[in-house]
């Protein structure tokens, strides 16, 4: 009956400077220091048919809303039950905690934001996840799960025009925050159709309910993926992948932020995302794999963000290194 006790420590820091030069008409917004520390003591025990994890997460952050408080305490409890010689696993857990929304994270997700942002820590006040995993005759790996998140300072991207009068730029994004409750139903499967052919299938339904906003902007309600991989031999493999996202909404501001009246906005339902790609991998040795990928094969001009359609057919060639 192995047992383990430990403590995880983490510290995050980011300095953010959004000061405008003196010779511009833009307002001077902020320089800010963001830091977050985390303390996570835990105890684990396991056996052939179970695994249990008991812990607590404590974190403190310097940029907060008053109702959040500097110090937050969240559960860190999870467990798994194994049956049928570990062919079937039931799992469940409670969790939570805060994470910094850094400027580098924002740019990686949406490169069209402007730099005058109020960055706050995303606060998962309570999270739950549970489900079942199974391996059927070593042919089908199946996962069915459900997830719940009650999140404070949940960030959403919205268009925020810059300027006023005749000189207004309408294609810059900013961030707004809201408190949300999200329920997700997940299903994933890997099926080995033959010794050399594998199918990966995934589906997710997400019901995100913001407190103040009408919709969870740009977040898909339904997501699906299908990937077929054919191994010609130990070195060469081909794959075909299909991606779908639907149920996304955008919030479009119609007036500049310096207007004397509250800015008006409209809501637009985004077109669904359909993306088809084909690729190939060639294993040179255990560390280096060359690859080629043709993305958006159907040349769909869908928009991940409003007024920013993706490019047409894209070709990628490169190498993957493993150390």
Describe this structure in words.
It is built from 1 helix and 20 strands. The chain has one helix at 103-109, and strands spanning 3-17, 31-46, 50-61, 71-83, 88-100, 121-136, 140-159, 162-164, 167-169, 173-192, 197-210, 222-231, 236-246, 249-253, 265-269, 273-283, 288-295, 303-305, 308-309, 314-321. The chain has a 14-stranded antiparallel sheet, with no helix packed on it. The protein has a two-stranded antiparallel ribbon with strand order 8-9. A two-stranded antiparallel sheet has the order 14-15. The protein is globular, with a radius of gyration of 23 Å. The mean pLDDT is 86.
Q: Which structural class best describes the helix and strand composition?
A: mainly beta
* Mean pLDDT over all positions: 86
Strand-residue proportion: over 45%
Helix and strand element order: EEEEEHEEEEEEEEEEEEEEE
Helix content: under 10%
Unreliable residue runs: none
Radius of gyration: 23 Å
**Largest sheet features:** 14 strands, antiparallel
Give me the count of strands: 20
Question: Tally the helices: what do you get?
Answer: 1
Distance between the termini: 34 Å
Shape: globular
Q: Strand arrangement, largest sheet?
A: 1-2-3-4-5-6-7-10-11-12-13-16-17-20
């Amino acid at each position: 009956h192995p047992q383990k006790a430990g403590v995880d420590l983490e510290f995050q820091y980011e300095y953010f400077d959004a000061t405008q030069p003196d010779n511009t008409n833009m307002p001077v917004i902020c320089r800010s220091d963001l830091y977050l520390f985390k303390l996570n003591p835990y105890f684990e025990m396991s056996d052939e048919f179970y695994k249990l994890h008991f812990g607590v997460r404590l974190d403190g952050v310097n940029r907060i809303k008053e109702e959040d408080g500097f110090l937050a305490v969240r559960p860190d409890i999870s467990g798994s039950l194994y049956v049928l010689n570990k062919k079937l696993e039931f799992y469940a857990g409670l969790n939570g905690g805060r994470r910094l929304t850094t400027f580098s994270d924002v740019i990686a997700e949406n490169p069209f934001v402007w730099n005058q942002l109020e960055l706050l820590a995303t606060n998962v006040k309570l999270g739950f996840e549970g489900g079942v995993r199974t391996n059927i005759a070593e042919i089908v790996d199946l996962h069915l799960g459900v997830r719940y998140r009650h999140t404070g300072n949940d960030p959403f991207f919205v268009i925020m025009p810059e300027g006023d009068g005749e000189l207004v730029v309408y294609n810059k994004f900013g961030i707004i925050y809201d408190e949300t409750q999200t329920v997700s139903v997940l299903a994933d499967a890997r099926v080995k159709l033959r010794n050399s052919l594998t199918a990966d299938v995934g589906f997710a339904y997400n019901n995100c309910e913001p407190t103040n906003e009408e919709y969870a902007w740009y977040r898909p309600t339904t997501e699906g993926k299908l990937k077929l991989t054919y191994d010609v031999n130990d070195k060469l493999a081909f794959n075909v992948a299909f991606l779908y996202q639907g149920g996304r909404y955008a919030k479009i501001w119609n007036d500049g932020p310096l207007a004397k009246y509250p800015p008006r906005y409209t809501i637009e339902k985004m077109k669904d995302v359909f993306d088809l790609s084909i690729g190939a991998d060639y294993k040179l040795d255990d560390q280096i794999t060359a690859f080629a990928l043709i993305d958006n094969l159907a040349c769909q001009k869908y928009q991940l963000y409003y007024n920013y359609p993706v490019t047409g057919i894209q070709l990628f060639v490169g190498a993957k290194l493993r150390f």
